[in-house]
Amino acid sequence: MSSESVSQRKIAFYDTKPYDRKYFDRAAETHNLQIEYHEFRLSKANATSVHGAQIVCVFVNDRIDRSCLEALGGLGVKLIALRCAGFNNVDLGAAKELGISVVRVPAYSPYSVAEHTVALLQTLNRKIHRAYNRVRELNFSLGGLVGFDLHGRTVGILGTGKIGKITAQIFRGYGCNVVAYDLYPDQEWSGKHKIEYTELETLLGSSDIVSLHLPLTPESYHLLNEQTISQMKKGAYLLNTSRGKLIDSAAVIAALKCGQLGGVALDVYEEEEGVFFEDHSETALQDDVLSRLLTFPNVLVTSHQAFLTEEALGAIAATTADSIDLFLDGKECPEERIVA
Ligand code: NAI
C-alpha cells in the first residue's frame, strides 16, 4: 500500500469515549482503517488536529458550523462521518458549498432508544430511583412510592419513524392506548397496531404520557413550549429521548412547579453540549436551568445514553466504517446515509 493510500485511510476521530474505541478498533481492523482518536470535541479552534486526514468522524456535540467546515476544507478534509443519526450540529449548506460530503448512521438499533425511553418512564412512574436509594439506607417504607398501571393509559407518540414506531409498539404491549402525530402518517402501520393518528393538540389533550421521537428541525424547535404544555392533560408525563431543543426547558420547570406536568424524563437537554458525556462531579454546575431540573424528585435525567447498547455501538461502528470504505472506493453510500 502506498503512503498516499495509507493517509487516505486515516480518520481523525473526535469526542472519543472508551466504548467508542472498543467497537471502532474492531471495525478499523476489518476495514483496514487507521484511526487517530481525540478525546476533545472538534471545532474551528482545534481543526488542525486532523493532521492530514481526509476523513473526520464526529458525534452529536462536535460543532461542525461554517467556520469549522471552512477550516476543515482548507486542511483537505473531504468527508465528515457522523457516528449518529441526527445531523443538526452540521451546517449542511456550508458543507455542500465547500464540497465536503457528510454521511450518518440513519439506523443502528431503534430498540436501544425505544427501550431506554420506556425504562425511564417506568423508573419515574414506579419511583425506582427513589426506592433504590431508600433501601440502601435500610429504609424499607413505601410512603411516596405510589405509581400507576400503564395498562389502559393513553400514550401520545410524536414522530413515528423508526424509534417512535418501536416505542409505540412496546406501549401497546403494556396494554396502553396509543395515539400518534407525524407529518407523514404511516396508515398501514397504525392500522396493523391499532394506533390512531391525531392532530397535535388532540394528542396533547388526551395523553397521560407524551413521548418525543422526531428530529430537531426549525419547525420542531421548542415544539413543547408554554402553550403546547398547557394543552397537555394536567399531571401528564413528558418523555424526551430525541433532541433537547424540542423542549423549552424553562416552560417545563414552570409546568413542574404548578403540577401541570406530573413527571419528566429526559435523555437529552437543550444545552447538553459540554455537560453531557463528561464528569463534572468535581466542579460547580454552571447551568442553572439544568440544576433546577435536577432538584425535582419527579424528574429523571440521563446523559444522552439511550443509544448505549452493545448492539447499537457495534452497528454504528460497522456502518460508519462501511460508509468510509465506499467513499474511499469512489462508490455511492446508500441514500439514507447521505446528508450532504
Ligand atoms: P426517523 O427519521 O426514522 O423518524 C422521524 C419521524 O419524525 C418521521 O416519521 C418524520 O416524518 C417525523 N417528523 C419529522 N419532523 C416532524 C415534525 N415537525 N412534526 C411531526 N413529525 C415529524 O428518526 P428515528 O430514527 O426514529 O429517530 C428519531 C430521533 O431520535 C432522531 O432524530 C434523533 O434526534 C433521536 N435519537 C436519539 C438518540 C439517543 O441516544 N437519545 C439516538 C438516536 C436517535
TrEMBL record:
Cited CDD domains: LDH_like_2
Top-level taxon in the UniProt lineage: Bacteria
Family matches, as InterPro entries: D-isomer_2_OHA_DH_cat_dom (IPR006139), D-isomer_DH_CS (IPR029753), D-isomer_DH_CS1 (IPR029752), D-isomer_DH_NAD-bd (IPR006140), D-LDH-like (IPR058205), NAD(P)-bd_dom_sf (IPR036291)
EC number(s) from the headed UniProt entry: 1.1.1.28
GO MF annotation, one: D-lactate dehydrogenase (NAD+) activity
EC top class, as a word: oxidoreductase
UniProt-listed PROSITE patterns: D_2_HYDROXYACID_DH_1, D_2_HYDROXYACID_DH_2, D_2_HYDROXYACID_DH_3
D-isomer specific 2-hydroxyacid dehydrogenase catalytic domain span: 11-335
Alphabetic keyword roster: NAD, Oxidoreductase
Domain called D-isomer specific 2-hydroxyacid dehydrogenase NAD-binding: residue spans: 119-306
SUPFAM superfamilies on file: Formate/glycerate dehydrogenase catalytic domain-like (SSF52283), NAD(P)-binding Rossmann-fold domains (SSF51735)
Family to which the UniProt record says this protein belongs: Belongs to the D-isomer specific 2-hydroxyacid dehydrogenase family.
The protein's name: 2-hydroxyacid dehydrogenase
